[in-house]
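for the recovery benchmark. tokens below, seq after
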């Protein structure tokens, strides 16, 4: 009940202003990022050789891109890279988040994002669809097509889907249908579901930027912990490391 209340407060206090996430400001490109201005950047692993790396690609919105952060090395994806290195997993985290992207935008770009090997695809799309009140069925179709494309390009890819919440002012029917898309798609596609990406962050002013939508540095720490809880078992399984192995 507390989580639901916080989500409603977050959405009602500025998290549901149409167009708030439509500026298309791309993720920064520090040294070593992908050339060509695609908005996809990759952290440089420190614990394993580059030739042994699998790739975990995050596609998403400003939440993934780290919009508003002065230092983009503190994004939740970069914190996850640090956890990956610490655990000794042979994976490179690739951040392909683009501010403003809807599920349709993500679908249009998916072939580019899937160039090169991809061991795990983490999908953080749909939040902007909810902000704009776009049809739920269209979002469902776009997300399904993203998953289909991932499996066409990389049949063995593991899928992780990050759930989001819709604006309560769009009505209970829309909100319920929006939420169910993530649950149903995860089940139908054998994907790991993160029920709510912003669990523990939404509704907390100290964990969000002044827009009330995007996490602060501290907020990204919370998001990283949430994502890691679902991603770590996937990486452990792919790596062949049992629970009792370091």
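predicted aa per position
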């Amino acid at each position: 009940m507390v989580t639901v209340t916080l989500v409603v407060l977050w959405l009602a206090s500025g998290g549901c202003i149409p167009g708030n996430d439509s500026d298309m400001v791309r993720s920064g490109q520090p040294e070593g990022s992908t050339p060509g201005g695609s908005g996809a950047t990759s952290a440089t692993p420190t614990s394993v050789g580059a030739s042994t790396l699998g790739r975990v690609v995050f596609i998403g919105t400003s939440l993934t891109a780290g919009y508003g952060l002065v230092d983009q090395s503190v994004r939740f994806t970069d914190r996850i890279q640090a956890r990956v290195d610490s655990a000794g997993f042979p994976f490179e985290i690739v951040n392909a988040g683009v501010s403003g992207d809807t599920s349709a935008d993500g679908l249009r770009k998916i072939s580019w994002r899937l160039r090169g090997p991809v061991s795990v695809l983490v999908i953080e799309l749909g939040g902007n669809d909810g902000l704009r009140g776009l049809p739920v069925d269209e979002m469902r179709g776009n997300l399904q097509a993203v998953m289909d494309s991932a499996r066409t390009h990389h049949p063995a890819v593991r899928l992780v889907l990050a759930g989001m919440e819709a604006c309560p002012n769009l009505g209970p029917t829309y909100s319920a249908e929006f939420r169910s898309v993530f649950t149903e798609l995860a089940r139908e596609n054998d994907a790991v579901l993160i029920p709510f990406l912003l669990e523990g962050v939404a509704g907390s002013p100290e964990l969000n930027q002044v827009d009330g939508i995007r996490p602060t540095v501290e907020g990204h720490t919370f998001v990283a912990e949430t994502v890691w809880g679902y991603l770590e078992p996937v990486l452990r399984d792919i790596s062949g490391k049992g629970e009792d192995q370091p």
